[in-house]
Structures are given as C-alpha cells and as structure tokens.
Specification:
Structural class: mainly alpha
Strand content: under 5%
Helix content: 55-70%
Order of helices and strands: HHHHHHHHHHHHHHHHHH
Shape: globular
Largest sheet: none
Length: about 325
C-alpha cells in the first residue's frame, strides 16, 4: 500500500472501504502486515468477495487493485440503473419516482461514495431475485452463495426461493439452501485455520428485537422537539422513520408469491435486531444494511394502482432522499 499513491486519512476518520481495499492486496489473508494495518482483520476477511474481484480486475498490480476496488461501486450503480428498470421502468412519472428512489437512496449513495459492499451486494440480490422469477431457483441459490462471501446478511436473500408445494419442491429447496450456505462455510473453515478462535470477531451486532430502533426513534424525537423539524435531527428522524414505514408496508402488503416481498420481510426482522451503533442514522449503516428492504418496498409499491395511497406511501417511505444530497456534496 505504501507504494501506491493515495491519501491517508487520520485514524479518527478511517472507514470500512479503506480496509476492504487493503484486504484486496492480500486476498488469501496470509500477510500479517495487512492484518496489523486494518481493524478487525477476521471480520474484514469474512467479507472477502469484492476484495477478490478487485484483485482479479487489477491483475494483481497494487495500484490497479486499489482503483478497481473504488470503481466497482460506480460500475455496480450503473448496472443497478439498468437492472431495476425490469421491475420499475422509468417511463412514467411513478416509475421514474420509484426508480430514482432506489438509485439515489441514502444507502446506495453512501456505498458508492465510500466504496463499500452494499451497492455491489444489491446487484447480486437483484440477480438472485431475477433468477427466481425465471424459475431457476438453483441458479438463484448459487448467486446468493456467492453474495454471502460479500457479507453474511446477503444470505437472507435465499428467502426469495419459491414456496415448496410437493416433495420434489421440498428437495429442491433443501438443495438450494445447502448451495447458498456452502461457499461461506468453506471460506470460514479456511479462515479458521488462520484466525482460530477470533474468526467471529465483530459479529456481536445484534440485540433484543426492536430495542435499538425504538431507542433511536425516541432519542431523535426529543432532538427534533429541541432543535426543530428542519434541522439535522429532523433529517435523521426522517431517514429512520422512512425505514420503519417500509417495514410496515412490507408487513401489511403480504404478497407471499412475490419474490421481492419474501426478500423484504427478512430485512424487516434484521432491522429489529440491529444494535444501537448500526441503528444510528448518523453513521449511514442502517440504510446500507437495509438496502434490499428499500428496493423491495419501492418495487412492491409499483403495484399500487390508487394515486392517493401510492404517493402517501412513497413520500413516507422515501424520506431518506432528503438526506441523500448530503452524502454526495458538490465539490468546489
């Protein structure tokens, strides 16, 4: 890394993207110098997929690897713009609004700006849902298995698998679950040989259901009363409340046959389990982690035929867009 021209941030300004970029310089996690340069090496090593792809795209050259890692998010964002048009084509006012709400969501822009794992993971999520809709469940499971190497929560997308209706379908579902789990299990077995008992460092990010989100909502409400609705606290409250609205809509809609509904609901459960740090809207983590919920919400909303309910749900569920411009400030 020292041989590659780069800007060095002070320790207090370090962020996840720089650690995954450094991890890409040692994709088999064998160099102890890399481990000493990043925080939580086992945690970063578990989420190895896009470090691997950066290494491959950079042809093993350090300067190219760093560039490839950063540009992956840009390429994935452009790919998302094309893929999402399958469900919400921007050819009408509603379609354009929904399509824009997904692409310019707070979580998606945060991932692109800081070269994180979330937008590339969302591309794989979209591909997995597409495969289910094309009645190729094993292909979908394979994509989910690959996505699990990017971040463990991507395995929740396996819920997109169709409901089994006969013994053969149950066997196919079992095969799909195994196929989705195997890549991450094999990689973690490899990492265990390196990190031993510390392999699951950083995994304790869950708590009693609903406690963290409720606490953050109450904290932000108090801040809004003190500072006013049109303040930073108001934007943060709007961001968090939009995710709550998305969760409520998914639970109320209950489209069991829709793969996107089956993807959204597990992320509602995940939202309830997040700890206080991840539930804090100021860090940007919660909107990134719940990107599949945001996309699922907007795709499901496309089926709402009545104008008044559509725009009411759209406005309430996409308040995160008010905070999105601050993620990508215009540079002088």
């Amino acid at each position: 890394m020292r041989e590659v021209p780069h800007f060095t941030y002070p320790p207090w300004a370090s962020y996840d993207g720089q650690f995954y970029a450094q991890r890409a310089l040692d994709p088999l996690c064998r160099d102890p110098l890399v481990d000493r340069a990043i925080d939580l090496p086992p945690f970063r090593a578990r989420r190895i997929l896009f470090s691997w792809t950066a290494y491959a795209l950079g042809l093993g050259r350090p300067a190219w690897i760093i560039e490839a890692y950063a540009l992956q998010n840009v390429a994935c964002w452009l790919l998302l713009a094309w893929l999402l048009a399958r469900w919400i084509p921007p050819s009408s006012g509603r379609g354009l609004a929904l399509w824009t709400a997904c692409l310019f969501s707070h979580g998606a822009l945060w991932s692109v700006r800081f070269a994180l794992l979330d937008a590339p993971s969302l591309v794989l999520t979209v591909c997995a849902v597409w495969a289910v809709e094309k009645r190729r469940p094993l292909l979908s499971a394979a994509i989910v298995g690959i996505a699990g190497l990017a971040r463990e929560t991507n395995l929740l997308v396996a819920a997109a698998q169709p409901f089994p209706r006969d013994p053969r379908a149950w066997m196919r579902l079992g095969a799909a679950v195994i196929l989705a789990a195997i890549p991450l299990l094999l990689w973690e077995d490899y990492l265990r040989s390196i990190y031993r008992s510390t392999i699951f460092a950083g995994a304790d990010t869950f708590m009693t259901p609903g406690v963290a989100v409720a606490a953050r909502c109450m904290q932000l409400l108090a801040a809004v009363r003190a500072e006013g609705l049109f303040s930073g606290a108001g934007l943060a409250f709007g961001l968090l409340s939009s995710l709550v609205v998305q969760a409520v809509y998914a639970l109320v809609r209950r489209e069991y046959k829709a793969p996107w509904w089956r993807v959204a609901v597990p992320y509602v459960v995940l939202m309830l389990l997040l700890d206080r740090a991840l539930a804090d809207p100021h860090t940007g983590a919660i909107t990134r982690v719940l990107l599949p919920l945001t996309v699922g919400f907007n795709i499901l909303l496309a089926g709402e035929s009545r104008p008044a309910p559509f725009w009411a749900w759209f406005a309430a569920g996409n308040l995160h867009l008010l905070s999105a411009p601050a993620v990508m400030p215009l540079m002088p």
